[in-house]
Amino acid sequence: MGRPGGGAIPPIGRPAGRAPVGELRVGCMGRRSPGRSGRRAGAQPPRITETAWFRHEHDEVPEAAWKRPAIGSAANCAACHRAAAQGDYRERNIRIPR
């Protein structure tokens, strides 16, 4: 198999053209193609409230707080993030309703 512009791709671990001796030539193996998400076709993306990132960012919020009438659920961002409608989720703009 060749590469664009001609020439064979040397085996992994062998010098390639001007590459320093001993440098590995990996190519694009293991990289995702553009536009590929890694999910199976038709699979729904996870809800943001189910991600490890969300759980980490909200680990200080007691479980009982999510059930308060003013909040309702973790999906109600605007209940605590006062500037959520503008895309602002900074901690300085958080107020957890009682």
Q: Care to describe what's here?
A:
By secondary structure, the protein is largely without helices or strands. It has a domain of 27 residues. The protein contains two helices and no strands. About 13% of the residues have low confidence.
Tag the structure with descriptive keywords:
2 helices, little secondary structure, extended, single chain, 98 residues
Could you say which overall geometry the principal axes of the C-alpha atoms support? extended
Terminal residue distance: 66 Å
For the largest beta-sheet, the strand count, sense and barrel status come to:
none
Radius of gyration: 24 Å
Order of helices and strands: HH
The number of distinct helices, counting runs of at least 4 residues, comes to 2
Helix and strand composition category: little secondary structure
Low-confidence stretches are 21-33
Helix residue percentage: 10-25%
Approximate strand percentage: under 5%
**Total beta strands:** 0
Could you tell me the mean pLDDT?
76
Quick summary:
The chain has helices at 52-57, 63-66.
Strand and helix layout:
Elements: H1 52-57, H2 63-66
